[in-house]
Design a protein that fits this description.
The chain is an alpha+beta fold and 382 residues long. 45% of the residues lie in helices and 15% in strands. The protein has helices at 6-19, 37-57, 83-86, 122-125, 130-133, 211-225, 232-254, 266-284, 288-294, 299-310, 314-331, 337-343, 349-360, 364-373, and strands at 28-30, 64-66, 110-121, 138-145, 148-152, 155-159, 164-167, 173-176, 182-194. The strands form three sheets. It has a four-stranded antiparallel sheet with strand order 3-9-4-7. The protein has a three-stranded antiparallel sheet with strand order 6-5-8, covered by helices on one side. Strands 1-2 form a two-stranded parallel sheet. The chain starts with 5 loop residues before the first helix and ends in a 9-residue tail after the last helix.
Length: 382
C-alpha cells in the first residue's frame, strides 16, 4: 500500500471490487503482554490503526496475533527448543558418583487437595460464621487489589497489593481495615502430604512474591479455570509446590532483615492491643471485664468497640481461638484431654467438653477420632 489515508483506502476498495478481488482479511502481530508499558501501548495504538484501516478497506476479519518475547528463555512461545539456546549448555559435566543414587531429599513440600477461589467484596471476606473462621487446612492469601489487614491469632499483618500471607492450620484469623469495599483477594487452600516443617519459616510473615512467583500464581489460576485440560491437577499441584518452594527460599535469604512495622494509627493500635489481651486471657484466666479494665474502658464500651472494629463479638472471637487451639491439641496424640482443655483456656474439663459439644455438635473424643481419620469436614461441613 502506498498510503493508509482513508481516501486512498476507499479507492483501493473500489478498485478491488471492480477487479473482482475479495479483500477478506488483514492481520497484525502485536505484543500485549510485554513487561514494558510503552511496548504494550504501542501495540494498542497499532492495533487501533489496523482496525480503522480494515474498516476503510471493507475487510471483515482482523486476526491479531500476540507475540510473546521470551528472549533468553530455553523455549520459544510454541514450546520448541531454541537452536541458539543449545549452545548455552556447559561443555562438560561432573561425573556422578553413582548411577543409582542421585539428588534426593527426605523432606520437601508436596501439596494436595488444592482449592482456588477469589473474594471480590469486603462482605464476602469478612464473613464471621464459625465455618469460615475454623479451618484445618493451609490458606495462602494473595492481594491483587485493595490493601487490608489480616488479624492472625491477635497479631496484625498489614498486606499491600502484591503481598501475600500463609495461614497455617488451626490459626484463627479474620480481616479488618480494608481500604475499599471492592477487593480482589486470591485464596489457595490446600493440605500437605509432606513438608510442613519447611513452611514454618513463612509463619506470621508478610510475603513479597517476586516476578517468577507471581507467574506461578497466574499459572495456578489458569489451570484451575481449565477444567477440561489433561493432567490439570498434576500441573496445578506442581506449580503450587514450586511457588511454596520459592517463597521459603526467598524467606531464608531474607532472614535477619528487619520486619515491616505495623501501622501506628490509634484505631489499629487499640484493637491490636485488645486482640492480644484476649489471646493472653486464655493463659491468664482473665474475664472480659478484666480485659476492659486493662484497656481503661468499661466492659460495655469494650464489647461495642471490639464488635465495631472486627465485625465479630468478643465472646465469639474468644470462642473461635479456643476452638482452634482445642482442634490443634486434639491432633497431637501425646496430649490428654485435660491438657488440651488447659491449653484452650478452660479451668474445668467438664466446661471444655460442653464447649466443644456446643460448637461442633460432637464430643471431644469424637472430634479427635475424626481429626485422626482425616474427615474433619464432618465436623465443619462446607
Amino acid at each position: 500500500m502506498e498510503s493508509e489515508d482513508s481516501a486512498y483506502a476507499c479507492a483501493l476498495k473500489k478498485h478491488s471490487l471492480v477487479q473482482g478481488v475479495a479483500l477478506n482479511c488483514i492481520s497484525t502481530n502485536q505484543n500485549f503482554v510485554g513487561p514494558e508499558p510503552e511496548v504494550r501501548q504501542r501495540s494498542i495504538v497499532t492495533t487501533n490503526r489496523f482496525i480503522r484501516l480494515a474498516h476503510d478497506l471493507g475487510i471483515p476479519m482482523l486476526p491479531t496475533f500476540c507475540v510473546l518475547d521470551f528472549s533468553g528463555d530455553f523455549f520459544d512461545v510454541f514450546g520448541t527448543v531454541k537452536k541458539e539456546s543449545v549452545s548455552d549448555f556447559p561443555a562438560e559435566m561432573a561425573k556422578p558418583e553413582s548411577y543409582y543414587r542421585g539428588v534426593d531429599t527426605a523432606s520437601r513440600v508436596r501439596s494436595q487437595n488444592a482449592v482456588v477461589f477469589m473474594r471480590g467484596s469486603k462482605t464476602d471476606l469478612q464473613q464471621s460464621s464459625l465455618s469460615n473462621l475454623s479451618h484445618h487446612r493451609y490458606v495462602w492469601i494473595f492481594v491483587i487489589e485493595t490493601a487490608g489487614v489480616v488479624s492472625l491469632e491477635g497479631s496484625r499483618m498489614p498486606l499491600k497489593v502484591g503481598e501475600a500471607l500463609l495461614v497455617l492450620p488451626y490459626q484463627f484469623h479474620h480481616y479488618v481495615d480494608l481500604s475499599d469495599s471492592s477487593i480482589r483477594w486470591l485464596f489457595v487452600t490446600f493440605d500437605l502430604e509432606s513438608g510442613a516443617d519447611l513452611l514454618e519459616i513463612l509463619n506470621h510473615r508478610v510475603l513479597k512474591p517476586d516476578e517468577r512467583s507471581v507467574t506461578l500464581v497466574r499459572r495456578i489460576v489458569e489451570l484451575w479455570n481449565r477444567t477440561d485440560k489433561p493432567n490439570r491437577a498434576a500441573e496445578l499441584l506442581a506449580s503450587l509446590d514450586h511457588l511454596l518452594l520459592r517463597l521459603t527460599v526467598g524467606m531464608e535469604e531474607q532472614q535477619g532483615a528487619p520486619e515491616r512495622q505495623q501501622s501506628s494509627s490509634p484505631t489499629v493500635g487499640w484493637i491490636g492491643r485488645a486482640e492480644s489481651l484476649v489471646v493472653r486471657s486464655l493463659r491468664e484466666g482473665w474475664t472480659i471485664s478484666n480485659i476492659a479494665e486493662k484497656l481503661n474502658v468499661s466492659e460495655r464500651q469494650f464489647r461495642a468497640r471490639f464488635k465495631a472494629e472486627t465485625g465479630v463479638s468478643v465472646r465469639r472471637y474468644k470462642a473461635n481461638i479456643q476452638l482452634h487451639r482445642a482442634l490443634a491439641g486434639m491432633k497431637e496424640s501425646h496430649l490428654s484431654m485435660g491438657q488440651i482443655s488447659e491449653l484452650s483456656g478452660f479451668q474445668s474439663q467438664a466446661v471444655f467438653t460442653r464447649f466443644v459439644q456446643r460448637e461442633t455438635g460432637r464430643s471431644p473424643t469424637q472430634c479427635r477420632r475424626l481429626l485422626r481419620s482425616g474427615t474433619l469436614d464432618e465436623i465443619f461441613p462446607r
